[in-house]
Amino acid sequence: MAAAPKLPQMITANRLRDGEVVWWKAGHWVERIEQGSVYEDPKAAAAALTEAQVFVTDRVVVNPYLFEVRVTDGRIKPASERELIRAAGPTVRHDLGKQSCPTLESFDVSL
User: Fold this and answer.
1) 101-105 contacts: CB < 8 A, separation 24 or more?
2) How far apart are CA 80 and CA 69, in angstroms?
3) Is the dihedral of CA 53, 59, 63, 69 positive or negative?
4) What does the angle CA 90 – CA 17 – CA 107 come to, to the nearest 5 degrees?
5) At residue 13, what are phi and psi to the nearest 5 degrees?
6) Which terminus of the chain has a lower count of CB atoms within 10 Å, N or C?
7) Nearest by Cα to 86 from 19, 29, 40, 39
């Protein structure tokens, strides 16, 4: 059995229609990490993941999963480098993807 997460969690997936990274927010998917639901309780996170799985059956998203985040001063930041990159968009061109939006919280995705 996996150890309980030490940090809050969120759910992410890829939208099947266009491959866009999306995050779960209480019954639907959103395109910005800061709009997604954060789960402090691992049982609530697992229940939400089960609910999100319906969208796989309906062929809306693929591969939803939980990942850990840090919330500081109301700002959500993924705990892993992989999720930082997914939240910001492609690392090869900063004029494309989510990082090209001037209102997006900036993430350091340098390797």
Assistant:
1) 104/32, 105/33, 105/34, 105/75, 105/76, 105/77
2) 8
3) negative
4) 25
5) -160, 180
6) N
7) 19
pTM: 0.80
**What is the CA 44 to chain-centroid distance, rounded?**
16
Structure tokens at 26: 């209480």
- Continuous segment of H or E residues that includes residue 62: strand 61-72
Please state, in angstroms and rounded to a whole number, the distance separating the CA atoms of residues 77 and 106.
10
Side chain identity, residue 47: A
- For 64, counting Cβ atoms within 10 Å of its Cβ (0-12 exposed, 13-18 middle, 19+ buried), the class is buried
Q: How far apart are CA 14 and CA 59, in angstroms?
A: 11
- What is the distance between the alpha carbons of residues 58 and 47, in angstroms, rounded to a whole number? 18
pLDDT in tens, 9-55: 999 999 999 989 999 999 999 999 999 999 999 999 999 999 999 99
Which amino acid is residue 108, in one-letter code?
D
